[in-house]
Specification:
Helix content: 40-55%
Number of strands: 6
Shape: globular
Order of helices and strands: HEHEHEHHEHEHE
Strand order of the largest sheet: 2-1-3-4-6-5
Oligomer: single chain
Distance between the termini: 5 Å
CATH class: Alpha Beta
Structural class: alpha/beta
Length: 168
């Protein structure tokens, strides 16, 4: 991802009120982590699995934080139980920042990710999770603001899938 685009994403998250982020690093969006550390406005929590990340982010939300969980798209499968119980059943809002591996717009797509990517959107739909696909930086700030507002209004998880320019 281009450095300016990474800066815009971090600024957008902060501007939307996100102040707590769990993460299991991946390669597509990893440039955001050093920027978040440097900013100081984010509490960053590394995790060992995406399920753990979602659960901790939901706990932070219940403690008054505006939380996000950063993962790659395969992590949506790993965290499904937590997303259903904490997010959907108990109504805890959390923003999912997802590097969309294997989708059409993944600039580094390969046989390793294509199957996962082809099932990501149907998987989110099956879980009842609202989502948006971002292929470029057009209206990045507005889309992040909309996603945070929507997660709070729906009282549940909302996913932003980053592909295209974000995966170069």
């Amino acid at each position: 991802m281009d450095a300016k685009l990474a800066e815009r994403l971090v600024t957008s998250l902060k501007g939307a009120g996100i102040n707590f982020v769990t993460y299991l690093p991946e390669t597509r969006l990893s440039q955001i982590l050093p920027l978040m550390r440097k900013d100081g406005g984010f509490q960053l929590v590394p995790v060992a699995s995406e399920a753990e990340g979602v659960t901790i982010a939901c706990g932070a939300t219940l403690g008054g934080k505006q939380a996000a969980c950063y993962m790659e798209s395969s992590g949506l499968y790993v965290s499904s139980y937590s997303l259903l119980t904490m997010g959907r059943q108990l109504g805890v809002p959390v923003l999912l920042i997802v590097g969309f591996l294997g989708g059409f717009a993944d600039q580094r797509n390969s046989f390793l990710y294509a199957t996962i990517g082809s099932r990501t959107v149907p998987h989110l739909e099956g879980l009842g999770i609202e989502h948006r696909l971002l292929k470029d930086g057009r209206d990045l700030e507005g889309t992040v603001q909309d996603a945070v507002r929507t997660m709070n209004a729906l009282r549940g998880p909302v996913a932003l899938l980053f592909a295209g320019e974000f995966t170069e």
